[in-house]
């Protein structure tokens, strides 16, 4: 009983710490009705290696950057393991690959961030609770309804996804709402709730590269999250250079504001990093400093991750031989 009480105390303390962190950074006002560790999952501390994380004492190559902005916060980068079921993951993978069938692998992206990939948008309703609406409307449109008939009846494109795929996507969206955003009663009445951009699905080939970058803030908001399918991978977060922060903000770069040594770089090498281990079915969420001040990238095949808090094992390192990777990316509106 004593052990159980201690465990419950630790979980309550973790809930309180997470709530304090997210409520101080989210667009919304804190609410005692919502707890960040939801019915869906708790974060897996073992899958985030912050051994070399930057702190307030890091020496930055640019005098125009404040070290305090780059101090890593453990709740700004979270990994939830086994977030979706194998059935949901398989449905999503099949739906995505069907829609990508006629697309060719792209050699490069316009901003040189990603190579050897396919990408599609997955249109879906904006509300995080629209799975209920989907179920109601789906009952009035039988499963055997053809795509042609669906188009004639102006059924939303989301209905072209399977029910299991919709369930997986809405599971992620509801979890983000419950764990990262705390709307007040007044905001709920005014319908000022979190709204999402359409999901993007990315098929990255085994030899493809996703290099260091910070997502632009011109169109997306506080959260960057990804559901990992197929191959495991390692994501690395590193402090972003002044030039990359300018790109993040959509600003023109000015030579007199950037140090020459990092004028063309995206991440500041040698200033620390944080690694996330992303096995299949896992969900990562970046917010705060990890979303705005760190680049993120996928390490190439052969990279090694050291599982945390695994002292009872002789060797807790994992060498990831990356295969083709499919991910579904979630972003909120600005």
Automatic annotation (TrEMBL):
<dbReference type="GO" id="GO:0005759">
    <property type="term" value="C:mitochondrial matrix"/>
</dbReference>
<dbReference type="GO" id="GO:0006974">
    <property type="term" value="P:DNA damage response"/>
</dbReference>
<protein>
    <recommendedName>
        <fullName>Alpha-ketoglutarate-dependent dioxygenase AlkB-like domain-containing protein</fullName>
    </recommendedName>
</protein>
<dbReference type="GO" id="GO:0006631">
    <property type="term" value="P:fatty acid metabolic process"/>
</dbReference>
<dbReference type="InterPro" id="IPR037151">
    <property type="entry name" value="AlkB-like_sf"/>
</dbReference>
<dbReference type="InterPro" id="IPR032870">
    <property type="entry name" value="ALKBH7-like"/>
</dbReference>
């Amino acid at each position: 009983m004593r052990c159980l009480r201690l465990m419950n105390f630790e979980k309550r303390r973790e809930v309180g710490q997470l709530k304090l962190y997210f409520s101080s950074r989210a667009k919304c006002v804190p609410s005692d009705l919502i707890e960040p560790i939801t019915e869906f999952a708790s974060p897996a501390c073992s899958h985030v290696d912050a051994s070399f994380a930057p702190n307030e004492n890091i020496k930055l190559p640019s005098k125009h950057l404040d070290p305090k902005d780059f101090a890593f916060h453990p709740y700004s980068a979270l990994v939830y393991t086994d977030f979706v079921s194998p059935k949901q993951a398989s449905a999503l993978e099949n739906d995505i690959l069907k829609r990508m069938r006629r697309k060719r692998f792209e050699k490069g992206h316009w901003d040189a961030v990603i190579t050897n990939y396919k990408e599609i948008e997955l249109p879906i309703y904006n509300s995080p609770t629209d799975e209920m609406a989907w179920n109601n409307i789906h009952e009035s449109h039988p499963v055997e309804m053809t795509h042609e008939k669906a188009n004639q009846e102006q059924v939303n494109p989301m209905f072209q996804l399977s029910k299991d795929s919709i369930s997986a996507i809405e599971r992620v969206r509801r979890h983000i709402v419950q764990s990262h955003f705390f709307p007040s009663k007044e905001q709920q009445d005014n319908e000022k709730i979190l709204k999402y951009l359409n999901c993007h699905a990315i098929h990255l080939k085994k030899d493809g590269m996703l290099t260091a970058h910070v997502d632009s803030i011109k169109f997306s908001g506080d959260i960057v999250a990804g559901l990992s399918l197929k191959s495991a991978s390692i994501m690395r977060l590193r402090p972003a250079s002044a030039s990359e922060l300018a790109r993040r903000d959509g600003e023109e770069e000015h030579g007199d504001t950037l140090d020459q040594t990092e004028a063309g770089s995206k991440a500041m090498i040698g200033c620390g990093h944080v690694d996330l281990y992303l096995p299949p079915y896992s969900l990562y969420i970046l917010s705060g400093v990890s979303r705005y001040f760190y680049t993120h990238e996928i390490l190439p095949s052969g990279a090694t991750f050291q599982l945390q808090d695994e002292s009872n094992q002789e060797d807790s390192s994992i060498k990831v031989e990356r295969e083709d990777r499919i991910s579904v990316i979630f972003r909120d509106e600005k």
